[in-house]
Design goal:
By secondary structure, this protein is of the alpha/beta class. The protein has two domains: 16-106, Diphthamide synthesis DPH1/DPH2 domain 2 (Rossmann fold, 3-Layer(aba) Sandwich), CATH 3.40.50.11850; 116-209, Diphthamide synthesis DPH1/DPH2 domain 3 (Rossmann fold). 30% of the residues lie in helices and 22% in strands. The protein is built from six helices and nine strands, in the order αβαββαββαβαβββα. A five-stranded mixed sheet has the order 2-1-3-4-5, with helices on both faces. Strands 7-6-8-9 form a four-stranded parallel sheet. α3 packs across α4. The longest helix has 20 residues, at 108-127.
Length: 210
Amino acid sequence: MKQLFIPAKVKSEINTKKISELKLPKNIAIAYSIQYQETASEIKEILSKNHNITNFLQVLGCSKPKFSKDTKAVLLISSGKFHAVSLAVESNLPVYILEADKLRKISEEEISSLKKRKKASYMRFLNADKIGILISTKPGQENLQKALALKDKIKNKEIYLFISNEINPREFENFPEIKSWVNTACPRLDFDSSVINISDLNFSQPKNAL
């Protein structure tokens, strides 16, 4: 039985005057979620008259996009702040989110809040004696080999591997003996949970902690 996937689209009226008057840096990247692809294309055409569009790309729930070095800010055309705050932390660039012709810059408070959660998760990892490593079986998120390599690197801690198609942080409470969770799947999982992404360990972990 074949499955047919039809992407949902959000089509909104574009106020050309408002878009052209947006206060944005000269060099900007435009990112969009798939539902807003058509809207993003129209906005790109309008902004291209007075701005240098350094990147034009789709963001997925679990993607970590990279932007060219001359990018001074990112304009995200999407709904909600899920992508926006993560983009701001990961790129170290100002991120603006545009929805229904309303422009909002992700605040320092929002960025600081996510960074504090990341730091708390990191400290929890360092102090934990039992670690759970999360592995997804979903295509594009499966990182079994990275998980096994990490397991071999970590010393003086008990390591448990948890493999599942769906990772639900609410299930963590069923394993109270696990004091820290390392995520090898979708990096956005750390947005509203206490996990630490494997990439954060790779880049920031002291050698004597492994």
